[in-house]
Please model this.
Amino acid sequence: MKFIVVGLGNFGASLAEKLTMQGNEVIGVDQRIEKISALKEKITHTICLDATDEVAFSTLPLKNTDVVVVAIGEDEGANIMVSALCREVQVKRLISRAVNRLHEKVLGALGISEIAHPEEESAERWSKRLCMTGLVDSFELNSNYSIVEVVVPQKYVGRSIQEIGFREKYELLVLTILKNTEQRTSFGKNIVTTVLHGVPRPDTILEEGDILAIYGYNDHIKAFL
Model:
């Protein structure tokens, strides 16, 4: 996949590096030459420019990019302006960083639905979420092994854990299954709650919408997804 990460502070730089390590083409953009110099050997491409400048912004290969991440954190105004420019040119997928609740509301008003909160979510989690289809969340145990939550792929709906061959075919361990259930409150409002179903049996049949908690080697998880 092709990514553009605008803003190479701690979060943006870490995300750009991890996406590059996972085999993606990544363009890192920042107006600070020291940030560009520090990362030019670690990510695919680096560009030094002010992304808030419409003319400079228009030189980026946005049409050929799968995901644009606006990771600017120290300047909310610049973050909002670049996010707005991305919306204007209708990039394929846009993720913007929010530093506080008001900032998030402004991004929401721009029609941006995917918001990153680096203070709560690590670059490691975001890199996995962006590279693995169906990934809900992840916890990295070390550089090779993770526990991840994934939505059961459609082709496995209606099949048992044993039939799919998690251990034999993919060398993965299904720790538990989470199911979203809708309940009606006494006030007449429907709320969705997540119920944990313990350690699944080999004959457990997977249903549409099930979320699997899986442990295994990162490459095996990616192969499964």
